[in-house]
Amino acid sequence: MVKAIQIGLGAWGFSWSKEVIPNVPSIEMVGYVDTSPEAQQRVQTELGIDPKLCYASLEDAAQRAGAVLAICTLRTEAHYPVVKRCLELGLHVLVEKPFTTTIAQGKELVALAKAQNKLLMVSQNYRHQPAPIAAAKLVASGKFGPLSMVSIDFRRHGPSQGYRYWDMPDPLLADMSIHHFDLMRYVLGDEAKRLSARTWNPPGSPFQFDPTGVVTIEFAKGTMVTYRASWMSSQPVTPWAGEWVMDGAEGTISWTSRDHFRDKRGPEKLALRPLDGEVEPVALDAIQFPDRTGTLSTIARVIETGEIPVGFSSGEDNLGSLALVQASILSASRGGDWVEVAEVIG
């Protein structure tokens, strides 16, 4: 059992407290931290958490609770100072994405985690689903040969689906697309070289900043990715992980993941089509700990065994995903000019 404290009990943090943490048996909760008495009261009242496990101070929780892991589920701008303090206090850290707002902050936290000999993991929960896991294995095995082009579509209509962060800067590229950017790197097993991005705000949109965009990304092995995404689409919605079509020299791999809008069970789909052949649906293996439970169970297992699994979304690895966010925002600000990823990651 890994003793853990959770920091941040707001709306999303409460979702972790209620829906994620209780479903990972290798985690023993020894503390819940939030400066808001109302947030503390909510977990006590609605989840039956012992008031003695609730703290207003991170330092008090770290000193008194006996935890080895901090689960950081705060707003993005609070990630850097809180994760830094957790590492300084000698805790392993699992933090929501994006784990920092700048590359410089991310590099600082990665260096600090190494200096402290502690794990820093980013909760890239979309990696922990059957379809992308299977797709990554197929690509790694060379199924259908080298990939020349990948097309990804993400479509949602925020106003009719309860989206409420109308004044969030870069609501697409910074808030949503990091999931898709991270999946690109994970599934392709490759790093992006450069990209071109255009974003815009459609007529009648309640968003203050651009919720719609198109990004073209060139990867190191030569794969070109075309990514079209919108929070203001009037077309049929896609699963949360998007609709993927991956063109290889000898055939096509297509898949979707996290279809929570249509079915709360989140069905996963993957199909193969050999060159000039018929589409062949692939039966996907069930996984014991999907989505956010997957990130939490993974870091618990690494703490207990010391073995780092394939696809582990460490802070260091996640710098590549954060760089794609920063590069796409920079390119969009330059009217779609090509931006070298090295320019932002250094």
From TrEMBL:
Annotated signal sequence range: none
Record carries keyword Acetylation? no
Q: What keywords does the record list, in alphabetical order?
A: Oxidoreductase
Q: Which InterPro entries does this UniProt record tie to the protein?
A: Gfo/Idh/MocA-like_OxRdtase_N, Gfo/Idh/MocA_oxidoreduct, GFO_IDH_MocA-like_dom, NAD(P)-bd_dom_sf
Tell whether Oxidoreductase is among the UniProt keywords.
yes
Q: Which stretches make up the GFO/IDH/MocA-like oxidoreductase domain?
A: 134-253
What's one Pfam family here? Answer: GFO_IDH_MocA
- The source's domain of life comes to Bacteria
**Where is each Gfo/Idh/MocA-like oxidoreductase N-terminal domain found?**
7-123
Family membership: Belongs to the Gfo/Idh/MocA family.
Q: What is this protein called?
A: Gfo/Idh/MocA family oxidoreductase
Identify the species of origin.
Answer: Devosia rhizoryzae
